[in-house]
Amino acid sequence: MAALAQKNIVCKVESERVIRYRDPEKGGKYAIFFTDWKRRIPSSSGAPPDLEMHMAHIHFKPWPYADKHFAGPPKTYALGGARAWWVWALSVLFVLYLFSVQTGYSVVNPSIQGDLQLSIQQISAVAAIYTWVFAVCQFFGGALLDRLGAHKVLPISVVLVTAGVFLFANAHSYATLILSQFVMAVGACTGFVGAGYIGGQWFGMAKFSFMFGLVQFCAALSSAFSVNALQFALGQVAWRSLFNYVGIAGIVLAVLAFVYLRNPRPVESTHEGVGAFFKSVMSALSAVAKNGHVWIQALICAAEFGALLALGVVWAPKLMAIRGAAPDTAALSASLLWLGLAAGCLFIPAWSDRIRKRKLPILAGSIVQLACALILVYVPGLPIGVDMAICFLFGVANAVHMLTFSSAADVVPPQLIGTSAAFVNGIGFIFGGILIARPGARIATGLEAGIERVSMDMVQYAARPIVLALVLALILSFVMRESYPAQQNRDSS
To answer: 245-294: per-residue pLDDT in tens?
Structure first.
């Protein structure tokens, strides 16, 4: 304190926590910050009378730094409660928004094909581009959330998806259509994982699995009904007007996201550079990729979720139309796939925990999915109602792909669980992009070979990659080892 007096430093009390002072020798404004100051300090042109007794708790920082960081403690919120549910609901609303846009493509792609004079290969490639870009970007989505927090990531993601929707609605060329999918995919890469992140942050990690399950249930349910809603809306307005309205809804969501989407406690910045960030993510991915069991789970997820994406986003309505369904009924088939997935997500993970096994549910689901696909592709002439029931059953059985995330997490260290989920999900979406695109390419080669476009022969030829993927999933389900943690088995006994 004597040193301060000798320098003739003039102090001015700004608040109970901050005192501004000027050091003539350094020629700039500085601040004194009291980390545990409780009493009100009388305003003075000099130092407070009892300043000396608090010197142990004083930090000296440049004034702009102090103004930003020492103006008071950061605002925090309690876990759970009404605000937590509101923030979580907004994050889920973003997931529903981007899932609805994604699955709505299966409804509007015939209109797009006609307006832009696109080939069937180009239509399937547009959907595949979204899937591939999403797959690559989402490897880094969880890491961005961990390092920057929800407020710096999720609102920007909403803006990107909304911008992509407007590009999509106003596209007049194939290149613009591709660009719209690229922009949407970059924004969407943090949507699903972001909702799971918000659930863990605002409700505690003990409820992470439960809250993440609710996210998947809501997403699948939304995908089911959004297809029908878009089908109805297309009967009232043109597809371009419809998606411009969807974009306006995205603007409203973006405003809400900027206001409310944040962590209950601010994320402490690590000041990690871009190079160090990518290096840390790649190091974690490399550690996970060295585990053979994780690869098996990733490939099972890729085959099964890829098949669902291919059918639910593009091909199910076309398949059902060839099987004799009316246009509205054919569109409903895609909804039933997602509705079945929602139903399966409610009980299959719980069943796995109840019997304390991963392999049996995954194997059973793989068998059912392959059987459903074989019936739809190779058994013509069934009543449309039976076909629709098979679509629903396929979706229910497809929910076992969620267990691949659990099985992968079973065999990695706790600090790599998020990375293992990103790895499995990324591989799944990359393979999903291939399965979306391949049937379209095979239709083109089938036409060249003389196969009639609207025929079961063409269905069987085009759907072969999907069927083979499900066969691969079944084989891997047989050879995978049981991964349910032994400690959990003992704890549950």
So the answer is: 999 999 999 999 999 988 887 766 655 667 777 787 788 788 888 999 99
* Separation of alpha carbons 392 and 131, rounded Å: 23
pLDDT in tens, 153-201: 899 999 999 999 999 999 888 899 999 999 999 999 888 878 877 887 8
**For residue 12, is pLDDT > 70?**
no
| H or E segment to which residue 10 belongs | strand 10-13
Between CA 249 and CA 123, with CA 422 as vertex, the angle to 5 degrees is 55
The domain ranges of the chain are 2-69, 81-271, 276-493
Supply the CATH classification number for the domain 276-493.
1.20.1250.20
CATH topology of domain 81-271: Growth Hormone; Chain: A; (1.20.1250)
User: The tokens of 53 are what?
Assistant: 């007794």
Burial of 60 (0-12, 13-18, 19+ CB in 10 A): exposed
Tell the burial category of 324 from Cβ atoms under 10 Å away from its Cβ (0-12, 13-18, 19+): middle
Those residues whose C-beta lies under 8 Å from the C-beta of residue 402, and which sit 6 or more positions away, are: 216, 345, 348, 349
How many other C-beta atoms lie within 10 A of the C-beta of residue 487? Answer: 8
102 CA to centre of own chain: 12
